[in-house]
Specification:
It is built from three helices and seven strands. It is an alpha+beta fold. It has a single domain, classed as Jelly Rolls (Sandwich), CATH 2.60.120. A hairpin with a 2-residue loop joins strand 4 and strand 5. The chain is globular and about 35 Å long.
């Protein structure tokens, strides 16, 4: 194998081995929030769970409350059952970029700020060939909710809809994977 081919193969392997989210713009600058019962470590490398309510509809969401969980996201999972989701808290509000390496199913991405939906990406496909697209909200957000594709349309979610969570999710900047 030539040097160029070896370098290209190594680069592709590193790209494919990357975690589930685009790199954090400045992970060191993330605001540290004291841990609470809602951010107790979940089982089997998964985050704690919260109930997220949008309008009259409730979703049980796993919280990606550490950098490791945030980067992994839903990558590698075979499905996401109806009524389930993954919630990504951000403090301070930001415009994170999401991508979907090693995803096996499409999703809806719900961008949330101050308890309201501020943007939606619906029926986001799971791409398998590079370059993988990235998805970003139109305005800074403090939560991102990923749910199975079609959920937002089926439940009639719209920009401006109120969003609540119980308990309130928090990001643990100092947590170890």
């Amino acid at each position: 194998m030539s040097g160029v081919a070896r370098t290209t193969a190594l680069g592709l392997a590193l790209l494919l081995a990357a975690c589930g989210r685009a790199p954090e713009p400045d992970a060191a600058a993330a605001t540290q929030i004291p841990a609470s019962p809602s951010s107790a470590a979940g089982l089997a490398g998964r985050g704690p769970e919260v109930d997220v309510t949008i309008g009259m509809h409730r979703v049980r969401a796993e919280v990606a409350d550490t950098l490791a969980l945030r980067r992994r996201g839903l990558s590698g999972r075979r499905d996401l059952p109806p009524g389930r989701g993954m919630l990504f808290p951000y403090a301070p509000p930001t415009r994170p970029s999401f991508w979907m390496p090693d995803m096996h199913f499409p999703i809806d991405i719900v961008w949330i700020r101050d308890g309201r939906i501020v943007d939606l990406h619906v029926d986001v496909p799971h791409e398998v060939r590079p370059p993988l697209p990235t998805y970003q909200p139109s305005v800074p957000i403090d939560w991102v909710l990923e749910v199975p594709a079609g959920t937002a349309r089926e439940l009639g979610w719209r920009i401006g809809d109120p969003v609540e969570s119980s308990p309130t999710p928090e990001f643990r900047a100092d947590a170890r994977p």
